[in-house]
Structures
1.
Amino acid sequence: MKQYTKDYSVWQQILWVCDEREAPDSTYRYLAFLHLVLGYSIIIVPTFLVMDRWVGLSPYPELAQELLFIWKIAHVGLLASVVTAAVASTQLLGAPRMSLARMATYVYVILDVVTTLLFALIQGYDEAMPQFLIFLFTVMFRALLPYRYAFACCLATVLTMFIFWSWLYTIPDLAMYFIPHADTGSLNALTYFFGLATIAFIMLVLFCAVNYLVNQRNILENYLTNQVLARYLPPRLVAQASSGNLDFEHDPESRVLTVLFADLVGFTKMSTELGSVGVAKVINQFSTEVSELAHYHGGTVDKFIGDCVMVVFGAPDSMTTQAQAYRCTEMAEQMVEMVRTIDWGVPLSIRVGISTGEMVVGHFGSAVRSDYTVIGPAVNLAARLETVCPPGCVLVSEHTAELLGDSRALKKIGPLSLKGVGDDIYAWSFKVL
């Protein structure tokens, strides 16, 4: 963990953003509905009902009426953006349009601040509720949303309050109403300025504290996702884990998949000649190359067992059985070429077994330790085909050969006696030139 965070200074973690993570789609939806259900029912609608009374009590009713009109117009924009975010983040009108939902959220984050400060300006700053709401917005938006939303909240607060202060400074008599317990116009403006600076300072401290904690969380989550989970789970499951949508509790399911087993030939001799350190370097390089090939062709690396690798096509990312067979054999061919062209320090080759059939895929194990893998007769068949495959060749099962059709020149081999599978088993091979 320390090694992973060494590039982030303390000031960057406090003031800026580290390992930014986009909020889950559900967060935008829940925040929008929170505004609609709680914000409007408990705060905004009751406020609308008493605003006219506050305007009537103001010593400057005409000015207060103009501010009330601006406040209402701002709330129209706030309501429109909240409804847009709520609808766009759901499936009410088809597939969710999250780019629109995020933009609408950005708009109502700013309007939240503007309408709250306008409310405080109209009814006077006797109450602490407006400032409390601004603090609450800052904490909520930074804790739940990416950095830019909380930053917009803080910036909108400072700019809006500065505009209000500048406006009051030009009309000092207004401070007698908007700033309680003041005596003269110049003192009122100065008092308001210091009040603004105090609120801005408190908000900055609050923002920095929350931002630091969120950055620590993001750094840890990215470390666990990219440095830990990515080594043991397929990319799609890692993405689900990152967004909080990964479920380990569902039962494994039966699907038709294609599985590949590959094994280095000459590994024993290599161990003797290169030693443990040299073998470790070769295995790591081989694993890296195979992982990149699997990712390129849409396969999922199930596991590495020493110099042997198991790759699955069709899970968790679905694809047709024809596509599975074609992509799997394409990967096998490139694996043979890769092992042949790289200088490993000792002569190495590879043998590959491929099988397509019905398998059970899912998480197997206990609550303490489990693996995402596939099991079934077709898996055993691929493993046995790999053990009898000549070096530099690829053996495929009958079902895989049928799916490939005329796309490859295949040679029938057999009958083969495969341990745990049976006798009189036929396979089809192609040799990589």
Note: Residues 180-187 have pLDDT under 50 and may be disordered.
2.
Amino acid sequence: MKRYIKSDKEYEAGGETFEGYMGATGWKGKNYDVHMDIKDIAKVIRSQFRKKFPNYKISVKISRFSGGESLTAKVWMHLSDLMPKDQFVKQASESPWNYSHGYWFGYPDANGRWQNIPAENLYSMSMEEKIEIFDRYYDYYIDHYTNDAYADINYGSEPIPLLYDEPLKYVKGLIDSFNYDDSNSMVDYFDVNFYDHIYYAYAE
């Protein structure tokens, strides 16, 4: 039986964790419905976002494959959402853990060559060293990601010098609310409602 999504219904982000497969932490979004097709989920994400952020553009695409399904969202941010350089460098240098993701941190050296260092190394550096690194990172970010219409950034994969990132946070939270994840990568076991990818670029 075909399920119809009411366009006037409001969907809120949220969900709960549970003890997952072999001790992993699972996730079940509050809007998760095993009978809801990913195509309908994409429609909801697109519609809800446009209502909440009418001045921003979003595209939401789906893919079906033998191993499951995926949902990819792309949001066009505004250049005015960017944090001024001095503000970004100050904040990142004082709290580098807020601007590093995972175990590694990447940045360009003085010659423009990309370097990867353990994120924990940032904490033991002097303030002068951190200021120099984040200063160069900001210039690299502006040069590579704001001047190329095709430069997509995977949300959460790089330090984001954004003054305003609520559209991205909203999309991430809403997508998670429709997902279910009982995976355990330690034993190579994957059980999700769908895989998700969030990208953003800059509009003029």
Note: The first helix runs from residue 38 to 52.
